[in-house]
Every structure is written in C-alpha cells, then in structure tokens.
Write a structure and sequence with these properties.
260 residues, 10 helices, 2 domains, rod-shaped, 0% strand, single chain, 75% helix, mainly alpha
Length: 260
Amino acid sequence: MQPTMSMLELREELVYSRIACNSEPLAKPLARVFTALLDEWKTVFFQQLDHWDAQTDAEFQVWRTDDVLDERVDDVNRILLNHTDGDREHPKYELYFATRPYDLKRPVLGEELESVRAWLPLLEGEDVGPLAKLKKPIEQAIEHADAAVAASTAADAENERFRRDGALAQFVERVRQKRDEVYAELEATRVADPKHKLPRDWSAGFFRRSSRTVSDEERTARSTARDEEKKRQAELAEKKKAAREKLRAAQRELAALSKG
C-alpha cells in the first residue's frame, strides 16, 4: 500500500475489509475500525479534490494568459508588417521575429513567453510609435503569464506534497497501522479458537488479495508510460493551440474579405 495509489483503490481496500469483518461473527466487532477509516477517507478525499481544483484553476490561468500573449504577438506582427510594407525579411521585422509568428505562438507559454520577454529591451528604445506603445501591455501580459506559471508550479508541488508526505501519506500510514492491528487481533482469535477449526490463512482472508506482485520491470514500464502520456498531453495541447490559431487566421481573412 503506497501513498501514490489511487484514493478509490484505497477506499476499495477498506470497504472490502469491512464487508469481510461483518460477514464473520468472530470478526464483526472489528468492522468498526474500517468504518472509522472510511469516514476519515472522505475528509482526505475532499482535500485531494481541493488540490485537483487548484491545479485545474492554474491550468485555466495558463491558457488564458497564453491567449493574451498570443494577441500581443499578433499586434507586434501586424505593426511591423505595416511598417515594413509586408517585408518579413526587413531587418526591423527580423529583429523581433527570428521565427514565424505562427511557430512562436505554438508553445503554451514556455519558449513563447521567454521570446516575448526578450522584446522588452527592444521596445524600451523603439522608434516605431505604435510598437513603442505596446511595451506596457506586453509587460502586463508577461507579468500575468509569470504569475500563472508560478501558480501552476505551486499547485503541482502542493499536490505532490499532499500525496508524498502530507495528509494523504499520513492517512495511508494510519490505514497500514490499523490493518496490522486488526490482523494481530484476528490472529489472536484464530490461535485462541478452542476447537482449532480456523485455517491458518483465516486472518489473511479479511484483506483484499493482490492479484500479483508488480516487478521492477513493470514499475519502470509504468513510469515510462506516465512520462510518455505527459509528453503526449503536451503535444496535444500544442496541436489544439495550432488548430485554434488557424481558425482565428481564417476568421480574420474572412473579415478582411467582407470589408473589401
């Protein structure tokens, strides 16, 4: 039983033991131990939900600030193209865009945020009026993006702490201790059976059996799978963002055509 196990799996362990105790007259008084743990489980589970909600809120803030940053990139691109008569090879344009705006905006913050941050010294002495006026909005966008990234990092760290050595880890340890105590009482009951009719594995039957032992190789495989899933989710986020940007570009083109 590990702190990293699913809370629903942990609950199933407790429910199983309570049902098993209630089904056996000799063990029925011990069912209350698991009832108490299940009550405590609810409190810990709601704490877990709070951590998950905090992570979701942070995720939303990251996406929202990323959208604003994308808008500032579009503003800079539009102003520069107007200033250079659409020449993307103009030194002024290349000073801001070493890569295409579309590619610059693909990451969700990350590299995009750092690239836009590097514009601040350029904007400080910018001689193109409309571009110079973007300095303050871009500073604000960066400030909000930094705050969103910090909040996301903090939410992830708090959830990890909660699971590794916080309330969840402490609860799992209490469950382990209580299980050991219940097992010891069951064993005492089995040994004290005057007719010696209880089988040697009688006490073990009150705890959910593991289907099999997980090997080191499987643990490694599971860890690799988790890492690959994180990578897949990051790539998916980039694809979603790219698709959204294409849609916006198409909408802008349609709007321009309708005006013409």
